[in-house]
Design brief:
Blueprint (H helix, E strand, L loop, with lengths): L2 H6 L2 H13 L3 H18 L6 E11 L10 E9 L13 E2 L2 E7 L1 H19 L3 H8 L13 H4 L1 H9 L2 H6 L4 H13 L7 H4 L9 H18 L2
Parallel strand pairs: 2-4
Antiparallel strand pairs: 1-2, 3-4
Helix pairs in contact: 2-3, 4-5, 4-7, 7-9, 9-11
């Protein structure tokens, strides 16, 4: 089926077709259409500098009233590095029958970088330029609305780089256990489930001296146990 043909089908009929494809194990038909629409939308919006990435993601449940049909409508997600609630007017709400949504990642991305700057200053005495240079390796990852980084949080991403490379290179034991201990020491003062768990720079009265001592103790213990 061509994209133009798909777009001309009424929405309720498109939903019925998607469900039939799903039940007949022909999901790839729907996915291929979505990928072609994605490619076309990228071309259509290529001249807009505020757009960082356009990706295919899951959207609303295709049939929320039926508990046996639990899959989502494919959505064309336009990611920007703008702050909320800015909206780019030239982004359509639908494109060839597929829903389009704009996701502004500017605030999330800057929150990540602010926490990294705070972390590396506190544990490695890096200045902001050093941290931003280190963070450039994650530029593409932070442009995606479905990046696992946004669920992991900046501390988990940064911890391996907070440990001396020589220790990592010679580690023979549970290096992930060391990372977990360091992460717990950094986030210990945060309320479970709060934003402080991902961004401990928001914790009131954070005691860097105590955390540095705990981290040093964890690293020394790991080094002794894995000689």
């Amino acid at each position: 089926m061509k994209l133009d043909e798909w777009a001309q089908i009424p929405e309720s009929q498109r939903r019925d077709i998607i469900i039939r494809w799903y039940k007949a194990d022909r999901w790839s038909h729907y996915e291929k259409l979505a990928l072609r629409a994605l490619k076309s939308l990228r071309t259509e919006l290529a001249s807009i500098p505020e757009i960082a990435l356009i990706e295919l993601t899951g959207g609303a449940l295709i049939c929320p009233e039926d508990p046996l049909i639990r899959f989502c409508e494919l959505t064309l997600t336009v990611c920007t590095l703008l702050a909320d609630p800015f909206h780019i007017d030239s982004i359509p709400s639908r494109f060839f029958g597929f829903p389009v949504r704009q996701v502004n990642l500017g605030d999330k991305r800057e929150s990540f970088i602010r926490t990294w700057i705070w972390l590396f200053k506190g544990l490695k005495d890096w200045d902001e330029i050093q941290t931003r240079t280190w963070a450039k390796q994650w530029d593409d990852t932070l442009k995606s609305s479905i990046s696992p980084f946004y669920s992991w949080g900046p501390v988990k991403v940064a911890v391996p780089s907070l440990v001396d490379r020589n220790i990592i290179n010679v580690a023979t034991g549970d290096i992930q256990g060391l990372y977990d201990d360091i992460r717990k020491a950094i986030t210990e003062g945060a309320e479970p489930g709060s934003s402080e768990m991902q961004h401990p720079d928001r914790i009131a009265g954070f005691d860097w001296d105590e955390v540095r001592e705990q981290v040093r103790s964890f690293i020394e213990k790991h080094a002794r146990e894995n000689k």
